[in-house]
Amino acid sequence: MTREKQRYRNETTNMDFINRHRIVPGQSVQLAELETRSHAAFEGKKQAKQFTAEAIEEIRSLQYRLFVEGRRSLLIVLQAPDAAGKDGLIRRVLGQMNPQGCRTYPFKSPTRHELDHDFLWRIHQCTPARGHVSIFNRSHYEDVLIARVEDLVPESVWKDRYEIINSFEKNLVAHDTTILKFYLHISKEEQLSRFRERLEKPEKHWKLDLADYTVRERWDDYREAYEDVFRQCNSGDAPWFLIPADQKWYRDAAVAAITRDTLRAMDPQLPEVEVDLAEIRQCYERETRLADDLPQ
Prior knowledge:
By secondary structure, the protein is an alpha/beta fold. The chain has 13 helices and five strands.
């Protein structure tokens, strides 16, 4: 390995993506003042993708241990403007976990049946069981975002929901669920560029929606709503991470690193062996001898 490659490896390995992108509780966030692009220690896309691939391999290993341990769980929440890349992030990074212990829940407009219950009813059913990981593609935060900006409920209703959400997340943490919340921070210009890509590629036409352009007219209103979310629903136990998302390769690398480092800190352990290994080995060797004695 060259000295230059070793320097890069040391920088990216030691980079604290958690502290770099975590919104400190109580911190006031002004999205218009924050960069939507970043290189950090990466020299470019190629190096970032290699870093991401290595992080994913470790995430798989740690998730396997979490599943077998069966004592704790992980909830990953993804929020973003349209075209910021939630689907791509799940496909390339988070969705690489073993589906036996990981599920993705895309929360769309609530059904009539869901509207007949409290706003967290459909959410609570999708929280992860012990040993499992749940990925929310949009989440309970839609009820203080779209519900607020589009006037779906009175202000007196959505204002009370911040504290209800805090209590909900506090309860999850008390029952051994670790929570990661990611906001993918994309510029208005980059979003329009990705809308153009959807128009030009027939395989992406299914994503086209006139409502995407209506929402752009409320860009500042949505940003203000997000800023209130970061101010009111950001605890040390359920932190928000603000990820620059104009560059897909950096977005993927940062989320992979934070997920990996969080699982490292959880340090899931394989259970102690409760069987008699010597006895099991004797049984195996006996069966092997019997198999060897069978006519071919």
